[in-house]
Amino acid sequence: MNSPSSLDSMVPVTVLTGFLGAGKTTLLKRILSEYHGKRIAVIENEFGPESIDNDLLVTDQEEEIIELSNGCVCCTVRGDLMRTLNDLRTRRQAGELNFERVIIETTGMANPGPVCQTFFMDDDIADYYRLDAVVTVVDAKHGMQTLDKQEEAQKQVGFADRILVSKKDLVTDAEYANLRRRLIHINPRAAIEAVHFGETDLKKLIDISGFNLNTILDIDPQFLADDHPDAHDHSHCDHDHGHCEHDHGHDHDHATCGHDHSHDHDHDHATCTDPTHHHHHHHAPAHNDEIGAFVFKSDKAFDPERLEEFLGGVVQVYGPDLLRYKGILYMKGINRRMLFQGVHQMMGAEPGKPWQANEKKSTKMVFIGRKLPQEIFTKGLEQCLTK
User: Fold this and answer.
1) Superfamily of domain 4-204
2) pTM above 0.70, yes or no
3) Residue 173 phi, psi dihedral angles, 5° rounding
4) Residue 262 forms beta bridges with which residues?
5) Would you place residue 75 in the very low, low, confident or very high pLDDT band (cuts 50, 70, 90)?
């Protein structure tokens, strides 16, 4: 993991992915034409009529790296992404190229996982570039259909730090609400925004720090309290929630339980054991998506050695199916929160801010992946808690 002092000098990288025809290239062209004062190197790994072959190009030559008319640099990945990034780094260090950030545009069918892993695998790249965020563009008109047909599209949503929904004007409010609900079930930690590419605030797309280990782990409240009419069966409480402790005794802290029920969507069901309150279980939406998410929460401390052993094993077994996972951990014997995150098999952790004296110490983790066995994860994590 990089020390914070070195982050400022690193070149931030945004991975731009999304459904075919959703408007990725329109967005990219707009960033390139409007981002005055910022020099951006674009790495494209797709060919075809939609690539940047319009009036932005100065020359149409065979060279892999070409200068754009607005001073940006454009590279087409004919070879390996790692080689291209190292080539850009070498030429920037030699003063041949001048750019401040990189945007990688992936093909409409690409899984962003291997692209993200590149920034953790190669030391030269990891020391020079800072993976900032995955931004995924979803087409409101065809989004449901694409998610039904293509698991790669689900992966693009699962990997995202920010989801932009285009063409909202072509669907009804109800259709948009259904799509949004489905996106939240696949990925409750990405902010979702309907965009008109002529008016998007570009500041929201760069410097998101989605891969930074910061202390914020936002999970969409709708994911924690999705109101399904058939969701009032208490009998299988401990399976449907990220975590539902049964041995609270009388020390349950209602501060974690949002008892102002007028704001029901903010209600924290995963840690709430109030028998008077209806739990809304995470029944999957009608669409049986391969990619989904779950949250684990606990007010008990983890035993550091047991947790490390369990997570190490889980990542070895389920790594290919784990897309993104992130957490703020309460660890026994450590007076500060531990921050952890991972992509597939690559996991990292570092200490975060100290716990304040008046602060309720707790763990919150979110796992996004393909057909993850929630019960195995939940029971395993519970066994890592101190008694």
Assistant:
1) P-loop containing nucleotide triphosphate hydrolases (3.40.50.300)
2) yes
3) -60, -40
4) none
5) low
